[in-house]
């Protein structure tokens, strides 16, 4: 996993963790945000390992509301992706992954 810094400001990283932690046991950046290659048109790609349904608030349509809320907070589009949805592309994602938060196990 990549551990180099991104161009996302520390306070924005903290906002992502604060807002997404109730839903996810692991939160990570990937793509241009993780590589430090953001352009003015870049979105922020966030990979989530969701908590089990009985350990998190319900998501449903809240998923889209979270993306929009984070867009407003961070000033650029945010794409939330689950590990499950991305599993077949994980190898390419893992090379530039920056973990922002992970539950202690």
Automatic annotation (TrEMBL):
Ranges where the Polymerase nucleotidyl transferase domain occurs: 21-89
Protein name, per record: Nucleotidyltransferase
Keywords associated with the record: ATP-binding, Magnesium, Metal-binding, Nucleotide-binding, Nucleotidyltransferase, Toxin-antitoxin system, Transferase
Sections of the chain in a coiled coil: none
Organism of derivation: Longimonas halophila
UniProt cofactor(s): Mg(2+)
InterPro entries documented for this protein: NT_sf (IPR043519), Polymerase_NTP_transf_dom (IPR002934), Type-VII_TA_antitoxin (IPR052038)
An example Gene Ontology molecular-function term: ATP binding
Lineage of origin: Bacteria, Pseudomonadati, Rhodothermota, Rhodothermia, Rhodothermales
A Pfam family the protein falls into: NTP_transf_2
